[in-house]
Design brief:
Arp2/3 complex 21 kDa subunit ARPC3, about 0% strand, mainly alpha
Length: about 180
Amino acid sequence: MKPKALNLTMTALFAVIICVCSMLSIPAAVPFTLQTFAVFLALFVLGGKYGTLSIAVYILLGITGLPVFHNFTGGIGILMGNTGGYIYGFILCGAVYLIMTKPINKKPFLKLIAAFIGLSLCYTVGTLWFVFTSAQGTGFGTALLTCVIPFIIPDTVKILLAYFISQRLSKITRSNAN
């Protein structure tokens, strides 16, 4: 398979992985899913360009109404609702990852820093969106306590797990290529 065709195939595969990891969730103000894990796995494995493209494909699938978001939901209503900002924030994660890792793509520390900066931006955009769209007039502090603080440790674990799995996958794919 030619490199561009392989990249596009992998982009589609990771969009599906993000979909599957997003659908199963534990209900909360912002549902607990494996979405963050899948987003960062896509970035670590595919790089910034194709990883971000897989995130965009996932979001576009959801916009069309396919049930790829938490609890098997889909449609523009989810993206316009309280948690939509966190989904949009994943595009920022990809953009940050692309910008920070493109010049020195081989540096593990830089990849992890880019992931955590991207996640911080995702939290910021998502929380601001949550406050803006909240019918109850939720304040920023309350939104942080509800939508960010409970996720910091699980999301850190998900990013680290995605990184270590991506390293293992790259070893497997390199050894099979020889």
